[in-house]
């Protein structure tokens, strides 16, 4: 009788799958149930393709077709689309704070670390896939324009396909964590854009060497390295580690705030 009573009074969230598997399923359903998700992802892919086509036109006009590799346009392909994906990543958490849905989420998944982890897995996976598809569209545009003159290597495919996916996934995770910290879409986007564009621009204008070195370790340069295979100011492998560190730092900060502050 006591066991039956405990079962009946146990929180509904726990009975309905409040663990990681249930949280993942819920986040996946919520993400794809929003029209904004489809719009953002379609815009990301189309913008990536458009910038790749413009880049290919520019290379063709300048006569640099002989030096084109599979990843030549990958850096350009993510330059603008990254801002659409970080908006999507931010909305995954800030949108719930804006509507009050975060209370429902945390009632269904009382462990806040689990709730944030589920969001991170879903956003990371979608951003990774979108980045790879963006790289694939960029490669298709490159092949269409340059045909037989295109040099395709395993290394070029690695940077051209996996590079955009890895960078966009880790960047999205950082912004997801940032969104959990500030709980505001405008605040998260302002902070992210300031880091991606504002700080590098200020560093270039000021010309301070210390500030320039700091900028070398911010996300945007890592994206260029991961998609181009360059080695200045450091290797793509180190760039991947830096991006992972940004993602971990953002999520850790988000978890700390999520755990220590009421919804």
TrEMBL record:
User: Which keywords label this protein?
Assistant: Membrane, Transmembrane, Transmembrane helix
Q: Output the Gene Ontology terms for molecular function.
A: ABC-type transporter activity
The entry's cellular-component GO terms read: plasma membrane
Residue ranges of the TM segments: 79-99, 120-146, 158-181, 188-207, 238-258
Q: What is this protein called?
A: ABC-2 family transporter
What species was this sequence derived from?
Answer: Actinorugispora endophytica
Which taxonomic lineage is given here?
Bacteria, Bacillati, Actinomycetota, Actinomycetes, Streptosporangiales
